[in-house]
Amino acid sequence: MTASLMNGKAVAQAMREEMKQEVQKLQSAGVQPGLAVVIVGEDPASQVYVNSKHKTCLELGYYSEVHRLPEDTTQEHLLELVGTLNAQSNIHGILVQLPLPKHIEEKAIIDAIAVEKDVDGFHPMSVGNMIIGDDSLLPCTPAGVIELLKRYDVEIAGKHAVVIGRSNIVGKPVSLLLQREHATVTMCHSRTANMKELTKQADILVVAIGKANFVDRSFVKPGAVVIDVGVNRLDNGKLAGDVHFDDVSEISSLLTPVPGGVGPLTITMLMQNTLKAAKRIHN
Ligand code: GUN
Fold first, then answer.
1. What ipTM did this prediction achieve?
2. Tetrahydrofolate dehydrogenase/cyclohydrolase catalytic domain: from which residue to which, for each copy (predicted)?
3. What is the pLDDT of residue 134?
4. Residues of the chain with CATH 3.40.50.720
């Protein structure tokens, strides 16, 4: 079997076109969705992400504010800015780019973001709402994985989904969202014994372990759908996923490439969360 590619870039583009229409409707009702992104320090990868978020906002007709703060910004100053953005009526979503410098406690900052503007879905209240099944703002990458599966008509209900990785940002939430879609979910991680015995049972395998080319065909049941959330920079400068693409593509039915798979969905879901927050705040 040779896998078909799941083209995240094309799905993201289609979703963005749909969102543009919604933004126009909202604007004619006098509301422009607004996103504030805060970055502290000069981390080059974070700079790239932040610029890309700003560019996407402009492309979709959102109001965008980027706050670039120096590395030595105090926690107190950052909390003050979050407080200002919480109160700002033209801002519907707030994202503080992670990682933050070591002298700032990330949890304190995330906790300070108003939950109705928590477009990252990282606030403990958002996480709690997600677990209960309430209609919260969902974390972007996990929500992107579900969106990609749905847009490729992959049946989730009743299937066995196996997730490799248990991070707060991807592994844990994507497991919950798959369960919410009625999959039977197994979570694996770096300490799982006999991991391949479990992954070989997966109809849907989601890999977010942060190790380049970790999953080869020996982990995969023939015909499985494989979603690679990993983004690893190799010594030669190239990007690689957590899945050995060439090897697994010969055995899986659908497979996401890196780049161009899950990645483009992350910012798209951020835009969707901002739109959702704007609609809710103004209703
Ligand atoms: N850094 C890398 N990915 C993310 C993300 O999704 N949200 C935030 N806030 N920071 C990040």
1. 0.96
2. 6-120
3. 86
4. 139-263
Q: Check residue 283 and give its pLDDT.
A: 73
* 3-state class (DSSP) for residue 4: strand
- The answer to whether the CB of 167 is under 6 A from ligand 1 is no
Q: Which fold has domain 30-114?
A: Rossmann fold (3.40.50)
Please report the DSSP string for 80-110 in residue order.
HHHHHHHH-TT--EEEE-SSPPTTS-HHHHH
Which segments are annotated as binding site for NADP(+)? 165-167, 231
Check pocket membership of 98 for ligand 1, CB cut-off 6 A: yes
Written as six digits, the tokens of 35 are 């996103």
- Which residue among 120, 170, 267 has the greatest number of ligand 1 atoms within 8 angstroms of its CB, and so is best to mutate? 120
Active site residues: 53, 97, 120
Indicate where the chain has its CATH 3.40.50.10860 domain(s). 30-114
Look up the pTM and report it. Answer: 0.96
- The residue nearest atom 1 of ligand 1, judged by CA position, is 98
* Bond preceding residue 70 cis, omega within 30 of 0: no
**CATH 3.40.630.30 corresponds to the domain 139-263:** no
Whole-number average pLDDT of the chain: 97
